[in-house]
Structures are given as C-alpha cells and as structure tokens.
Amino acid sequence: METLKGRDLLSLADLSPEELLQLLDLATQMKAKKVNIRCNKVLGLLFSKASTRTRVSFTVAMYQLGGQVIDLNPNVTQVSRGEPLQDTARVLDRYLDILAIRTFEQKDLQAFADYAKIPVINALTDLEHPCQVLADLLTAQECFAKLEGLTLTYLGDGNNMANSLMLGCAMTGMNVRIASPTDYQPDSNIVEKAKAIAGDRTEVTITTDPIAATKGANVIYTDVWASMGQEAEADNRIPIFQPYQVNEELLSVADKNAIVLHCLPAHRGEEITDAVMEGSQSRIWDQAENRMHAQKALLASLLGAD
C-alpha cells in the first residue's frame, strides 16, 4: 500500500477502487495476525463531536501498531477560543505524524488538510464517514467472501453514512439502494459521483419505498434518525421515519441470508428493533470490532512502516 503513504483520507473517493480493495485485504490479514506492521508514530485525535467507537478504535489501533496517541480535546485547546484553523493545522503539523479529525463541516476538515503536510483522516463530518464504511465493507466481505454483485440497502436519513455507503458500494461493485423520506434524501452531488463511479457495472438507487429497497437485499443497514447536532428534531422525525424501521417484518423481504448492520449508537425501538439487533442476522458487533482493524490498516498505509 505504498501508494497511500503520506496521503489524506477526507472522502472514500480519495481512494481508487483498487486501493480500497487492497486496504480491505490488508485489514483482513492484520485481523488474522498474518501481517505485523510497526510504525512508531504519533496520532492526534481532534474531535469536536462525541465519540466512542471512533475514538477508542483509533487509539487501540495506533497502540497496536507501536505508536502513541494524543487526544486533542478542542475544549482544552485554543481551538475553543477561536484560533484560526490554518494556524492550528500548521502547529500540529510540526508535532504529529498523522491527524484524525471529527467535526461538523467538511470545509473545516479540508482547511486542515490544506495547511498541514501530515496525513489528515476524516473521522466523521456531516458530509461523510469514510472510516465507518471501511469497517462496513470489511464486515460484508467476511460474511459473503466477496463484495462484487451484493446489494446493500440503507434505510433512514440520507446523512453522512448514506453518502459514504454510496461511494464505497459503487467502488467495490455492490449495488446500493438508499430508502429515505422525500425531504431527507442524500446529498445530490454525492449521488451523482457514486453513479459515475458505478457506471454500468452496478446500480445506485434512491427511493422513498423501504419495502422495494429491501427486497432481495444482502445487507440491510440503518442509522439513527437524528444525527449529532439534530437532537432538537428527534421527536418530530419519529413519525416521518417510522416506515423505515428495520424490524422482523421488513427483514423478511430481504435475502434469506441477509445480514443487518448499524454504525451505532442505536436508538433501540426507533430505527431498529431489539429483536433484529440481537437476532441471528445481526453482525453489528463484528462491524464495531472491525472499526479497529480497518483503521489499523488505514493508519499503517498512510504512515508506512518504520
């Protein structure tokens, strides 16, 4: 994966389809302990949003690579007092080897990447969540042996997860269906980008019909109906999104061997039922574990071995 050394990952589209598949292969080998890469480097985590899985999985992954982690809580840095992003970026560039950022706007992430020479990773913005999709694809690949030809259905808000899933599926030869209410569909620019990547090889379908989207699908995916920063809208969204709940009735129209994924945290009883989340088709906990393996492969590739 020498082609990735020193690069940023702000979007899945920053990778070529071949690089994405190679990254998944490296994650598989590292998870099976067939490859042992060491990189004695320092990772900075600059997170403006709450995080459990992303923060912990990046930290453990970096420690397992032999590196160190500095948690740069914005509330105790000058970022919280309005220091310009370009100033912070150029200072952190002198201290760190790599930086993962979780923030609201994609343009703020891009600003860091423009002013810092070290690799910058998108650990979630309102537009995309590429690291999560690396784990999602790794999980699906473990379950079905290959990704090409599979169909993934995402049900719910057309948010950052929907955007990154469209790109990841298109790049790996998977059909992707996004079922969302009319006023909550995914970013139109990302839809067009995904369709361009897919070409004639796979289908990118946007619909308001959850049943049609789920029929025959191999992977059923959902996320919370109100993301971070949208908490005030949560109660109003429930009746709008109720038809998109992943429950046993909906799952019955999917492929009989379909798996269920959720990026977590989950609001049990809203976007997904307890019965499905704890059921035999759920791969949610494997998916959560795979955050660490996928990001470990990503860090090793962007940093290079010692």
Automatic annotation (TrEMBL):
<keyword id="KW-0963">Cytoplasm</keyword>
<feature type="binding site">
    <location>
        <position position="78"/>
    </location>
    <ligand>
        <name>carbamoyl phosphate</name>
    </ligand>
</feature>
<feature type="binding site">
    <location>
        <begin position="227"/>
        <end position="228"/>
    </location>
    <ligand>
        <name>L-ornithine</name>
    </ligand>
</feature>
<dbReference type="GO" id="GO:0004585">
    <property type="term" value="F:ornithine carbamoyltransferase activity"/>
</dbReference>
<feature type="binding site">
    <location>
        <begin position="263"/>
        <end position="264"/>
    </location>
    <ligand>
        <name>carbamoyl phosphate</name>
    </ligand>
</feature>
<comment type="similarity">
    <text>Belongs to the aspartate/ornithine carbamoyltransferase superfamily. OTCase family.</text>
</comment>
<dbReference type="InterPro" id="IPR002292">
    <property type="entry name" value="Orn/put_carbamltrans"/>
</dbReference>
<comment type="pathway">
    <text>Amino-acid biosynthesis; L-arginine biosynthesis; L-arginine from L-ornithine and carbamoyl phosphate: step 1/3.</text>
</comment>
<dbReference type="InterPro" id="IPR024904">
    <property type="entry name" value="OTCase_ArgI"/>
</dbReference>
<feature type="binding site">
    <location>
        <position position="223"/>
    </location>
    <ligand>
        <name>L-ornithine</name>
    </ligand>
</feature>
<dbReference type="InterPro" id="IPR006131">
    <property type="entry name" value="Asp_carbamoyltransf_Asp/Orn-bd"/>
</dbReference>
<feature type="binding site">
    <location>
        <position position="102"/>
    </location>
    <ligand>
        <name>carbamoyl phosphate</name>
    </ligand>
</feature>
<feature type="domain" description="Aspartate/ornithine carbamoyltransferase Asp/Orn-binding">
    <location>
        <begin position="148"/>
        <end position="301"/>
    </location>
</feature>
<feature type="binding site">
    <location>
        <position position="291"/>
    </location>
    <ligand>
        <name>carbamoyl phosphate</name>
    </ligand>
</feature>
<keyword id="KW-0055">Arginine biosynthesis</keyword>
<feature type="domain" description="Aspartate/ornithine carbamoyltransferase carbamoyl-P binding">
    <location>
        <begin position="7"/>
        <end position="142"/>
    </location>
</feature>
<keyword id="KW-0808">Transferase</keyword>
<feature type="binding site">
    <location>
        <begin position="51"/>
        <end position="54"/>
    </location>
    <ligand>
        <name>carbamoyl phosphate</name>
    </ligand>
</feature>
<dbReference type="InterPro" id="IPR006132">
    <property type="entry name" value="Asp/Orn_carbamoyltranf_P-bd"/>
</dbReference>
<dbReference type="InterPro" id="IPR006130">
    <property type="entry name" value="Asp/Orn_carbamoylTrfase"/>
</dbReference>
<feature type="binding site">
    <location>
        <position position="160"/>
    </location>
    <ligand>
        <name>L-ornithine</name>
    </ligand>
</feature>
<protein>
    <recommendedName>
        <fullName>Ornithine carbamoyltransferase</fullName>
        <ecNumber>2.1.3.3</ecNumber>
    </recommendedName>
</protein>
<feature type="binding site">
    <location>
        <begin position="129"/>
        <end position="132"/>
    </location>
    <ligand>
        <name>carbamoyl phosphate</name>
    </ligand>
</feature>
<dbReference type="Pfam" id="PF00185">
    <property type="entry name" value="OTCace"/>
</dbReference>
<dbReference type="Pfam" id="PF02729">
    <property type="entry name" value="OTCace_N"/>
</dbReference>
<keyword id="KW-0028">Amino-acid biosynthesis</keyword>
<dbReference type="InterPro" id="IPR036901">
    <property type="entry name" value="Asp/Orn_carbamoylTrfase_sf"/>
</dbReference>
